[in-house]
Amino acid sequence: MGKDSIEAYDIPERIASYDADMDVMHPLRHEMIDVALRLPSFERDMSLTALDLGAGTGLFTQRLLERFPNARVIAVDGAALMVDVAAERLGDLRERVEFRVGDFQNLDALLDPKEKGHLIISSYALHHLDAAVKSAVVNRCVGFLEPGGWFLNADLVAAPTEELAGRYQQLRVEGILERAAPGDPRFRDAETTHEFLRNLEATEGDQPLALEQDLAILRASGLSHTAVFWHEFREAVTGGIR
Q1: Domain boundaries, the chain
Q2: Both ends of the chain: CA-CA distance in Å?
Q3: To pair with 65 at 20 to 30 A between CA atoms, which of 31, 75, 129, 188?
Q4: Superfamily for the 3-158+205-241 domain
Q5: pLDDT (tens digit, 0 to 9) for every residue of the chain, 242 residues total?
C-alpha cells in the first residue's frame, strides 16, 4: 500500500473516526460489499479460505464470515492499529481470522507460496497503487486463487474526463454536507469540504485508475469473466474468476 498510505491510517485519531467518516464520505460501501459477496456461487456451508487485502477495520471480513459460517480469512493490513480495531469489531468471529500485518505490495512476505484460497476481497485499498504496482499485486493474487476462485474489488475509480471528475466531486461534497454531523469543522461548507478532501487524498496517496485500466489489469493477470459488477460515479465493484 506504500509507506505513506500506511502511516496515514496508523494514527489513533484517524482510526477512532474511520468507520464514521467512511459512512459520511462513502455511504455506498455497504451496498458494494453486499454486491461483491453475492457474486460467487459458493455454497453457504463451504469451508472456503479468503484473503482480505487492506482489511482495515474489518467490515468486509465481518460480512464475509457472517455470510459463510465455515469460512476463514487471512486479513492483511499494514496499519497495526487498524488490525486492533478489526479484531475488536469481529468479536467471536475473530477465531476464524488470521491477521497479518504488512504491506500487501509485498505479498510474498505475507503468504506462504503453498497457500491457496477461493476468494480475494478488497475495499478502498488498491486505489493507493499506481498501475504497475497494482498489476504486480493482482498477478500475485491470481497465484493464490484455486481454479474457480474469485477476485473482487470494491474501490474508487477515476472519472473518464476532467469535466466529469469535477461534477462527481461536486456531487460528493453535496452528499457529505447532507450526512455530516452538525458542527463538524471539516465539513462546515462546500469550500472547507473540498479542501479537506484534497488534503486527505494527497495524504493517503490516492491514485485511482479509470475503469478501463482496472479491467485491463484484471484481464492481463489471467482472470476470466472480468467485469464491472456495480458502478456509480467514482466507485465500482470489479473482478473476475481464475
Answers
A1: 3-158+205-241
A2: 23
A3: 129
A4: Vaccinia Virus protein VP39 (3.40.50.150)
A5: 555 544 455 566 666 788 999 999 999 999 999 999 999 999 999 999 999 999 999 999 999 999 999 999 999 999 899 999 999 999 999 999 999 999 999 999 999 999 999 999 999 999 999 999 999 999 999 999 999 999 999 999 999 999 999 999 999 999 999 999 999 999 999 999 999 999 999 988 899 999 999 999 999 999 999 999 999 999 999 999 99
